[in-house]
Amino acid sequence: MEREVSIARGRLTLVAAGPSRTSRTPKTASRSAGRGKSATRRARAAENAPDVAEMTDPITLIRELNHRVKNNFQIIVSLMNLRKRMLPPDRREDIRFIEEHVQSMSVAYRLVYATGSMTEVALAELITDVLSGLRQIASIPEEQLHFDVRAANARIGLDHAIALALYLAVLVPPYLNEAIVMAGAVTISVTVAVNLVTLSVSGTWGTPIALDLLRSRLMQAYAAQLRAEMQSATAVGAEQLRFTLDRAGASPAV
Fold first, then answer.
1. Which of 78, 99, 126, 241 could lock onto 12 through a cystine, CB 3.0 to 4.6 A?
2. Is 35 a residue whose pLDDT tops 60?
């Protein structure tokens, strides 16, 4: 059985190709013709897509760039999902780390394009969507991940949104893994007071999670981009991150 990869609206799908090209039934030929027409329409749409080099309106330019980045992330995520499904179960963890990072970054671009603001996103929606994606990747039931995001109307600049999403992609998965092993639950709380965000992550088992060297360094790097203060679970009973909301869209510190 041959397989084909079809692309539609930025998503990749692995489908059976059906009979060979030399023995197509009329129905198969009709479907192939339909796919050919769809490919032609997509090609024409690509030809008619706005040329970034010709755009003079900064708002239109930023929106178009965000749109293209969002679509590219969707294709990358779809490719990883296809690859993951084709791997044997004991090999699927090999790409999980990358999948978590790409999926989390894609949330920020999807939200900034959907809201039309182009430079900032809703903090509560960002955190909720990132956590939901990480939970699905870890295949952990909803009742084992609790999050309380009290950030009504709070918004965060796109650069800081990406850094925060990546911070969560580094810190949360080890807690989810431990929750599965310990049959416990992970609690993530977020509060905002006068633009000061406090994010806490803890588990019901009561002991801190030992992170490997790579995750520890990445957490420090993303916290630096947020200009955030980190406190370990051994000090305050939960992994805690505190930073001031940036809504200006300025590039974070390196």
1. 78
2. no
Q: Which amino acid is at 123?
A: L
- Structure pTM? 0.72
In the chain, CATH 3.30.565.10 sits at 50-244
pLDDT band (50, 70, 90) for residue 94:
confident
Contact assessment for residue 148 and residue 190, using Cβ atoms and an 8 Å cutoff: yes
CATH code for 50-244? 3.30.565.10
Using CB atoms within 10 Å of the CB of residue 231, give its burial: 0 to 12 exposed, 13 to 18 middle, 19+ buried: middle
Condensed to tens digits (0 to 9), the pLDDT of residues 225-248 reads 999 999 887 766 789 999 998 765
- Plot region of 153 (φ>0 → left; ψ -120 to 50 → alpha; else → beta): left
Tell me if 75 sits within 8 A of 7, measured CB to CB: yes
Given this model, what pLDDT does residue 37 score?
Answer: 52
- The mean pLDDT of the chain is 79
